[in-house]
Amino acid sequence: MIARTNKLKVQDEEKISHSSSETSIPAINKNDSVKKKVALESEQKYKQFVEDALLGIGIFEGLKIIYANPAFALIFGYSIEELLSFTPKQIRNLIHPQDQKLVLDNLQKRLAGFDIPPHYQFKVISKDGNTKTIELYAKKIEFDGKPAVQAICIDLTERIKTRKALENSEEKFKKIFENSGIGMSILDPKGKFIKVNKSFADMFNYNSAEFIGLSLLDVTHPSEIEHSIQIMKSLRENKEEKNKQVEKKYIKKNGESFWGFVTITPIKDSAGNLSYFIAQLYDITKRKKTERKLARYAEELKELNTSKDKFFSIISHDLRSPFNALLGISEYTSRFFDELSETEIKDSVINMHNSAKKVYELMQNLLEWTQVQTGRLKVEKSKIDLCEISNEILELYRDTAANKKVKLDSEISCTINLYADRYMIETVIRNLISNAIKFTNPGGTVSLNAAVNGVLVEITVLDTGVGIAKENQNKLFKIDAQYRREGTANEKGTGLGLILCKEFVEKNNGTIRIESKENEGSKFTFTVPLYKNSSE
User: Fold this and answer.
1) 78-102: per-residue pLDDT in tens?
2) Beta carbons within 10 angstroms of residue 256's beta carbon
3) Of 216, 324, 383, 412, which has the maximum CB count within 10 A?
4) CA separation (Å) from 478 to 316, 374, 498?
5) What's the rounded Cα separation, in Å, for the pair 125 and 303?
């Protein structure tokens, strides 16, 4: 069209020029020539604009292309000259078969003056046989007095490919998101859930729909809330931070807690503004339990090593001392028997007896302690008459207390029955009474009392002895921090008595504690289940 128009314009100008050479032209005709020259320059500029346009522009007279700019030719892969020479059949074949009827009907209707929407999409076939999608803006125009159609085309092929690739990518992400065995969720910048997958919802015993509207803090364990707030704040404000990986506790729908390892990644736009968060969550509860077990095993191993060290310490030191005394006295007596008086021999025998007794007590404690440590000492619970065993134990120590001038008292009700291992409870009471006498000065008192407290019986051994300093009280029941001192009459201890007491009490579902003040005395209290609230 532009080419034809330019040709017509040049012909008109030549006529005007020829006429001017033959006839005298008034001044006003010169002005008309200037105007025509300006119009020509304007049209040339418009032509250049159309030629350089990135949009494909073509003009059709029926099924004949009468103008095509370079961009139009590029869409189809032909030269402009080839397109201008196309027959109606060739033009028809440019259109994809499935869209031929639509495009050709629209062209005929538009030429006939029908009101057809100017904008629609259809597929074409380029010279290399590839299918392209174009977007068409068509308009009916007049050219040389004839109806024509001006077509402006945009090649959408790459845009559609890009969109399809994006859709495929989104579909792929959606499938990964929905079907992943990892818990995944999307949260808005305030930390509210926008979307969660099934694995994520299952961890909390919710369904996916129930999560929408909840915030991350709603399912965070109370002990972790402040930490979570700081994490989200850091991710919002620190533009350089890529993600955060933390171990934290969460709360399920039923109130149960579990441990999770979460990776929170902020997704930002091109300007660096936060759009949303993606959170990936693993349930690590089993791993945490395993870690706690390993820590417990390590602690138990440490205790076993301490027990082993203590065992060898007792054998090397505590057991040697009474044996040395026993051997020394017996050797002296045997060597000088004929020279010793009856009184000296009697004293030697008494000393040997005391040494042998100490060795026996130590061996007995070592045996019991070893049985406890190796698990060979089984707990056999039964009904126990507390009054009965208390009287037996007090009777056992009356001579020892009388020799030291220590008074023994008992205020045990004969209506209290225990549910425990008889041998262990007797051992505990014996040790506590023995220690109380040992650390009480002549003229002092040792009392044995008991009281029912709910489902438990509290048994107390109280003395008016030397007492124990506060800083030493927590050492009494620990084998690795043992506290030892001689009695008020220089009595020696094995160092295992109170440790055995604690072991035996705990094996019978009880506890043991001490209250003491230096120079005022000590009070040991341990608990045992009451018989009437237990079943044999």
Assistant:
1) 999 999 999 999 999 999 999 999 9
2) 11
3) 216
4) 19, 17, 9
5) 84
Give the helix/strand (H/E) hosting 355: helix 342-374
197: containing domain: 180-283
Size of the chain in residues: 536
d(CA 179, CA 199): 8
Predicted local confidence at residue 482, as pLDDT: 59
Structural element, H or E, at residue 447: strand 445-453
Cβ atoms of 133 and 123 within 8 Å: the answer is: yes
Single-letter residue type at 21: S
d(CA 286, CA 283): 8
- Same domain, yes or no: 488 and 401: yes
Measured CA to CA in angstroms, residue 477 lies from 96, 267, 319, 426, 481 at distances of 94, 57, 21, 18, 8
The whole-number pLDDT of residue 479 equals: 63
Least confident residue range of 49-53, 399-403, 439-443: 49-53
Q: 330 and 239: one domain? A: no
Residue 457 phi/psi, 5-degree rounding, is: -115, 130
Asked if residue 6 belongs to a domain, the reply is no
**What separation in angstroms does the CA of 482 have from each of 17, 166, 373, 429, 475?**
129, 72, 17, 20, 5
Domain termination residue (choose one: 256, 283, 310): 283
Residue 450, both tokens: 């008991």
Q: Residues 228-244: pLDDT tens digits?
A: 999 888 888 887 778 88
Residue 495 contacts residue 469 (beta carbons within 8 Å): no
Give percent of the chain with pLDDT exceeding 90. Answer: 34
